[in-house]
Design goal:
With about 140 residues, the chain is mainly alpha-helical. It has one domain. Helix 3 packs antiparallel against helix 4, helix 4 runs parallel beside helix 7 and helix 5 crosses helix 6. The radius of gyration is 16 Å and the shape is globular.
Length: about 140
């Protein structure tokens, strides 16, 4: 799917250019893969497993949330706010049940912010353009 999107010159997410837009699905897929594999590896630890599987869902929600925001004609900036609200609910649950955030919840939040940083900065670089050409071109 990502190669097909890269092949379309009009492909764009938000106000990003064609190549910079490829960072969105790339980081979503990387983050999903990290927490999903960790979830599988932590099947014997129910608190970690359930959080990691929930985080896998949250971290891959970007396209669905974006379509919802676009459908209701809301600003593009609302997408990360919706996703952060889901993290807030999870960390709130951690505080209610554990009196502190679980390491899995913090890992998911860190991955979310790392992806945001990549989308806002790395995606605009020549290095990303070269990587995208190799991976998707």
């Amino acid at each position: 799917m990502m190669r097909a999107a890269y092949a379309l010159p009009d492909f764009s997410i938000g106000s990003n250019g064609h190549v910079a837009s490829m960072m969105f699905p790339a980081t979503d897929l990387i983050n999903f893969s990290i927490v999903y594999v960790l979830g599988l590896l932590n099947r014997g630890t129910p608190p970690a497993h359930k959080r990691l599987m929930l985080l896998a869902g949250i971290l891959i929600l970007d396209p669905a949330v974006a379509r919802l925001i676009q459908t209701i004609d809301a600003p593009f900036a609302l997408i990360p706010i919706v996703e952060l609200a889901l993290f807030a609910l999870l960390i709130g649950y951690d505080f209610l049940t554990l009196r502190k955030p679980h390491w899995c919840s913090l890992l998911g939040l860190a991955l979310f912010f790392a992806a945001m940083a990549a989308k806002l900065s790395v995606a605009q670089t020549q290095a990303w353009e070269n990587i995208a050409q190799i991976v998707f071109g």
